[in-house]
Task: structure prediction
Amino acid sequence: METQMVKADAQSVAQAAAYIRAGEVVAFPTETVYGLGADALNAQAVHRIFEAKGRPADNPLIVHIAALDQLDALVTDVPEAAWRLIEAFWPGPMTLILPKRDGIPDVVSAGLSTVGIRFPSHPVAQELIRRSGCPIAAPSANRSGRPSPTRASHVLEDMQGRIPMILDGGPCAVGLESSVIDVTGGTPVVLRPGGVTPEMIERAAGGVRVDEHVMKPLEEGETARSPGMKYRHYAPRAEMTIFTGAPDAVARAICSRYDAAPRGAAILALSEHVAGYGARRVFSLGSLSHAQEAAGALFDLLREMDALGVERIYAEALDPHGIGLAVMNRMGRAAGFHIIEV
Ligand code: TXA
Ligand code: MG
Result:
């Protein structure tokens, strides 16, 4: 199959919508990362997403909508706390886990009784959903296990020959996947942190919990509250280690490992600290006072380091507050939660 990568405009979005209606899979931009979409109500089309991604069948997909009146046909109940979050953060980088209706094929929800719903703010995503005339099931548009794509060229790297079309909408504004919030049990529980932060959720809904597995791996025999927690996502080919602690101590620890490593090592540092690493190979994550910069840069950097053949990454930790928690969650997973406190 020939994969067409086209700039998103009225004509290409209409063509992509025709593919979706015909049961095909297309990639499209959202404000978080690129998605790999198909008609959420067509089980066969959704199967094709799993095939194109190489995704395990027990990891459910998020269903994307472009109007609140689409909700009713997808979920059986929207609790009070969910409404408050919807009013505050939709359209936007937030997925709500809600009790699903029977009409959603099991392949979408991986057999669970709940489904993740998101109303993206990106105009191309909204236009595609409207023109397709159906809710769109979409995971991130990477091959399973690779960093999520924040540019159309990343999608092409992973999906060439596997899907007919990629809509190019430029780089994604947030750069990390949506916050996944379980609202089925009263207090909202963050299963995956993202652009809608625990602090923002607390303010809007009056309470929040962050699942403990956001910053630590599942133990043998533990059940994941979100199937995605089981998998080592965002994995660069390099072995990655994260260092937390006082900045001076972190820099010393990183330098000593780097200097002892064979060739192929690289450092991931906050921009304020880059100069301190001298002539070593260092990549800037962005400013320590603007975690959004690191969110926007992380997946791009992981792909770039892969392409350069980096074999070991020594990374500075960020303050895990605000969107910094989402960055640390993705870095932690990329490192297999190999985090050293110095
Ligand atoms: O920003 C995003 O959310 C992007 C864009 C394309 O919208 N999509 C995305 O999808 O990141 P994906 O499939 O890569 O991640 C979905 C995550 C997975 O970790 C999955 O396990 C979790 O959401 N999830 C989906 N449905 C769930 C459910 N019913 N209960 C718990 N977790 C669920
Ligand atoms: Mg993903």
Notes: The CA atoms of residues 96 and 181 lie 5 Å apart. The chain has two domains: 4-215, 239-341. Residues 239-341 form a domain with the Rossmann fold fold (CATH 3.40.50.11030). The first strand starts at residue 4 and ends at 7.
